[in-house]
Amino acid sequence: MSVKVYVPCDAAAVSVGADAVAKSVAEQISSRRLNATLVRNGSRGMFWLEPLVEVETPQGRIAYGPVSVDSVASLFDAGFLEGKAHALRLGPTEEIPFLKRQERLTFARCGITDPLSLSDYVSHGGYRGLERALKLAPEAIVEEVTNSGLRGRGGAGFPTGIKWRTVLNTSAEQKYIVCNADEGDSGTYADRMIMEGDPFVLIEGMTIAGIAVGATSGYIYLRSEYPHAFRTLRRAISIAYDKGYLGENVAGSGKRFDLDVRMGAGAYICGEETSLLESLEGKRGQIRFKPPLPAIRGLFGKPTVINNVISLATVPIILDKGGEYYKNFGMGRSRGTLTIQLAGNIKHGGLVEKAFGLSLRDAIYEFGGGTASGRPLRAVQVGGPLGAYFPESLLDTPLDYEAFAERKGMLGHGGVVVFDDTVDLAHQARFAMEFCAVESCGKCTPCRVGSTRGVEVIDKIVADQDRTRNLELLDDLCEVLTDGSLCALGGLIPYPVQSAIRHFPEDFHKPAPPHPANGSAVADKVPGKVEERQSWR
Amino acid sequence: MANPRAWDTERALTKIKELEHLPGALLPILHALQDEFGYVDKAAIPLIAGALNLSHAEVHGVISFYHDFRHAPPGKHVLKMCRAEACQSMGCESTIRHVEKRLGVRLGETTDDRSFTVDAVYCLGNCALSPAVMLDGKLYGRVSREVADFLIDSAQRHA
Fold first, then answer.
1. pLDDT for A79-138, tens place per residue?
2. Nearest to A141 by CA among A295, A298, A322
3. What are the E-state strand segments in A21-79?
4. Where are the domains of chain A?
5. What CATH topology corresponds to A330-420?
6. Kind of pairing, strands A304-308 and A176-181?
7. Each residue's pLDDT tens digit, A222-243
8. B102 CA to chain A: closest CA distance, Å?
9. Which of A15, A264, A281 lies closest to B126 in CB terms?
10. What pLDDT was estimated at residue A214?
11. Angstrom distance (rounded) from CA A491 to CA A69
12. What CA dihedral angle connects A496, A501, A507 and A508, to 10 degrees?
């Protein structure tokens, strides 16, 4: 039998050379006339080991990594097709501690299968959730999701079952399922990984949602920064149509579900659900007033389920194994697993799927191995650009929605960005305001104007101009943003700013730098910061 | 990067015709035009407005809202450099300053010889391999100054 060699096709793996490694592996197989097959799998999520090459042996899959093009020939020389010794040999993949200690439910297949092989998908438990859903009444499907305790993984943590129930109970001739794949938070890549590594699980989850609430049409709204995921989804959707898992007769049930993927256009705000719906309708991505909720009046004014990628990709396993099974993972009101994404200045960056409740410290040190630079950790930002900066002293916080909220932080989409002791938190606070200014949709004044004022006030604080009064002014401005903004962008941008001031006050009280060009030298997108444009020409 | 064609009204109309039936067709049309020509020409506005029964202002408003849509053709190579938090923690700003100096542009600008457009981007989803950049649609990780130089050199060689 032909030996299978796995080289990931995940964009992150490709970003450090996986395509070139795959090409080289294929060349070696052909020039040495070996009985081996190259498979492009998703990523296992151990990015510091990418490109991670695996070989299927009678003893299971053996991992080698990080593999460079230059080392491919020596792997073949060493007999890696039989799993033999080599300097890059990591042992059985499943035994690598980073992976072994995880509880992979949503990501059960990611990195194991060929993402575009429907037979791989089905032989690894795929479409069992849909099969069961098709035997249940719509109410029973919604009940199962409600019982699982699944909460929106996009960041807000709203119970998924309640959203679904509202749509189910709202009658309309047309309803929609919309997947929010506008994963814009820095430090997050779980959505991208699952869309590239196991796209059928998202398609299955959306199909189940459609059948549950009576929606016959679905859209995946994908950010344009993810061209690889776009291509994978397009192909997966077309395969699902060909094999009768999408279209007018889903899996022979007589029920219809159509699915399309649409590309965003580089606007962070379109991750906010009402902006996303506006954008899908072909408009400026400006947020809508709520109510009415999208579940009542969503896409094109119709009842719409709008969920994050991970929420929808978790639905198949809940239907397959039951809500009770899923609920048994986790702590407090945070049930099931969280996909933690270790990012930034971290030695072992990657995806950790684990029941809620792991401490931030264990995530960073036990899994992540500390900073990449080897310098002391100084700050951690959890939950994307709107999340708080935590100091070392808060690292024992469990990864749980409520525990983070109690400490004026936000778990968000589970991104953990680590900074070493070279970070300047005043600079990070300024960046937060600057980002808000660049990405504000402009609908409400606190966010549109307040963000630019925020940049200016922080510049004055750093330059030691009337520092005490400007710190008070910044506090006041943050209060206006929190209370007066229409959505989470303006409403939460005070989180990173005020946490930086609260936990790292010394960074706001340094002597003023010698010249006023403090902050970012690349801050040219902010209004009023376009000086010296031509100076290098 | 495939050389985009010069603006061509007939070709634009064909693209618009192919997509105008879609619900919420405006973004797909704008993407298609930008894929074809490298930017969205002002001349496209009345064509789209006519096809979708929108006002010129509505179409212009959408084009100007989204960071992706260009109003003029980009350089031969487009380098998108991430400057979000994860990449900052790994020193992206130093790489960005280096590239800006080397090419003599700031983020958002095109070099005088039109060989490069350098854009800021906020997260490419490669945050475990920061700093990340995207050159002509291809993603790269761990982009130090040296890697950035290598990428620019290679692009210039294959000009």
1. 999 999 999 999 999 999 999 999 999 999 999 999 999 999 999 999 999 999 999 999
2. A322
3. 36-39, 53-57, 60-64
4. 3-100, 118-327, 330-420, 425-508
5. Ubiquitin-like (UB roll) (3.10.20)
6. parallel
7. 999 999 999 999 999 999 999 9
8. 9
9. A15
10. 98
11. 48
12. 120
Coil, strand, or helix at residue A89? strand
Q: What is the DSSP letter of A268?
A: G
Alpha-carbon Rg for chain A, nearest whole angstrom, is 24
Burial B108-123 (b: 16+ CB within 10 A, else e): ebbbeeeebbbbbbbb
Domain borders along chain B are 9-65, 77-157
Provide Rg for chain B, Cα atoms.
17
For A232-376, strand residue ranges (E) read 258-263, 304-308, 330-331, 334-335, 337-344, 350-355
Task: Give the whole-angstrom CA distance, residue A177 versus residue A401.
Answer: 25
Please state the φ and ψ torsions of residue A207, each to the nearest 5 degrees. -65, -45
User: Which residues 22-61 in chain B show a CB within 8 A of chain A?
Assistant: 23-28, 30-31, 52, 58, 61
Give every CB contact of residue A113 below 8 A, 6+ residues apart in sequence.
A41, A42, A120, A121, A124, A198
pLDDT of B4 reads 74
At A2, the amino acid letter reads: S
Q: Does residue B1 have a pLDDT over 70?
A: no
A38 CB-contact burial (10 Å; exposed 0-12 / middle 13-18 / buried 19+): middle
Residue B125 CA to residue A13 CA, distance in Å, equals 12
Q: Is A187 on the interface with B (CB under 8 A)?
A: yes
List A261's β-bridge partners, or say none: A220
- Which amino acid is it at A36? A
**For A48, which DSSP code?**
G
Element (H, E) at A236: helix A227-242
Give the other-Cβ count within 10 Å of A82's Cβ: 12
Q: How far is CA B8 from CA A69, A90, B36, B42, B52, in A?
A: 43, 55, 10, 12, 19
User: Is the CB of A280 inside 8 Å of chain B's CB atoms?
Assistant: yes
8 A C-beta contact, residue A160 and residue A322? no
- As a CATH number, domain A3-100 is 3.40.30.10
**Rounded CA separation A77/A84 (Å):** 10
Fold of B77-157: Glutaredoxin (3.40.30)
Summarize pLDDT for A394-408 with one digit per residue, the tens: 999 999 999 999 999
Residue of A nearest to B102 (CA): A536
Compute the residue count for chain A. 537
SS (H, E, C) A348-390: CCEEEEEECCCEHHHHHHHHCCCCCCCCCEEEEEECHHHCCEE
Q: Which amino acid is at A457?
A: V
CATH number of the domain at A425-508, please?
1.20.1440.230
> Are B100 and A345 in contact (CB < 8 Å)?
no
| ipTM for this prediction | 0.97
CATH of domain A118-327: 3.40.50.11540
Count of CB atoms situated within 10 Å of the CB of A369 = 15
- Total residues belonging to chain B: 159
Interface contact B85-A381, CB threshold 8 A: yes
Is A330-420 in the same CATH topology as A118-327?
Answer: no
Tell me, yes or no, if A372 comes closer than 8 A to chain B by beta carbon. yes
Closest residue in chain B to residue A524, using alpha carbons only: B107
Sheet holding A176-181, edge to edge: A258-263, A217-222, A176-181, A304-308
